[in-house]
Amino acid sequence: IIITGSPRHDCILFPNKKSKEMLNKKYQIKREGPVVLFASTYTDKTHFMFSNPNVLNDMKKAIFDAAKKYSNITLLVKPHPVEKNNAYYNLGLNIKNIILVDKEEDMTPLIHISDYFISFGSTASIDALIAKKNSICPIFPGWPFSNFFEKSKVVHIPKSRKDVINLFSKIVDNSLDTIGNKYFLKKHVYKNDGMSSQRIKRLILDLI
Predict the structure, then answer these.
(1) For 76-104, b where at least 16 C-beta lie within 10 A, e where not — what string?
(2) H-assigned helices in 7-160
(3) Is the pLDDT at 132 greater than 90, yes or no?
(4) Which contacts qualify for 25-31: CB closer than 8 Å, 24 or more apart?
(5) DSSP H or E run through 186
(6) What's the pTM value of the predicted model, to 2 decimals?
(7) Which of 57, 62, 110, 161 is 20 to 30 Å from the Cα of 141, by its Cα?
(8) Read out DSSP for 66-78?
């Protein structure tokens, strides 16, 4: 086994300018303030064995309420591929600064066009950290699925609706602290240097 690193991470380190322009145009994103990408998740009956399903709904609602409160923030909502979009309409998608993106959209260019990243412990949080995005991982009481990121200390951890709204306030004021993640990435991401594809290419050529 030869470890090369991930070509996906190469793409994160080297944004595609054309893809960014296309996304901004497709979703009519006006760069009048910070853009926050919210990568959502879902729960099913298996999750209910470990948590109350209302906890996830409360965290989602807190994010929507915070976006409504600070209208100069653009909130991009990226549903999980298995989620149903109609669940978000109940949260307030009629608010002009909240944009629902296609749930099949590739996460990487969405991270590139955003300034901040929110998830509930998604592995996409690592992608956002590689892209040097200030990241947020709400963990309300009763949500046990984000312990890895809570222990990492490289993301902001709001634990209540009040905490979420306070973080959005700091985003507006540009006063949200940037948490260093150099050692976290060095430990968990192999050779995050943008050269993984080249290493794979060289290995293939050596085998021909």
Answers:
(1) bbbbeeeeeeeebeebeeeeebbbebeee
(2) 7-13, 17-26, 53-69, 86-89, 107-113, 124-130, 147-152
(3) yes
(4) 27/76, 27/99, 27/101, 28/99, 29/74, 29/76, 29/99, 29/113, 30/74
(5) helix 182-188
(6) 0.89
(7) 110
(8) HHHH-TTSEEEEE
